User: What shape does this take?
Amino acid sequence: GTTYDSQLDVYTGACGALTNIGGCNDDFCGLQSEMTWNSTLGTIYRIRVHGFGGATGAFILNVTCATNDNCANAFPIACGGTASGTTATATIDGPALDCLGGSTAPDVWYSIVGTGNAITASLCGSGYDTQLDVYTGACGALVNIGGCNDDFCGLQSEMTWASTLGTTYLIRVHG
Assistant: This one.
């Protein structure tokens, strides 16, 4: 719906002290622009819509937020990284039967690439009764790596596994 050569920039911070989050976009689809970035819960993002070379005109700004509510959109996390999220608005995307035999709780997904060393995923300190499952393979044809965890630290879960260098692991977080 944009009728001119548009550009997009995305910033954080207060007006007058903005910080560009890492780029801008011009001509993603024809002369129109599109940007994708990983957001941080609670952060305000300021989206600047403007024209290339001073171009002006009508535009339509569509904003969609991808979630890690399904295996195919697992959020990547690096070793040493931390992620926060919620399953409160999630749906069930995991296997019909998890490794403990049938959690029907909503789930969210993360991915991590193996380093050849042990990897630990921990939900200790979470605000509800959690469960962790770890898989390899493609979504729809997942292979459990040999277990899951429920109630490692009180009602929260933690798993440690020996990773294979370069292998992608899918971590399912649910109740």
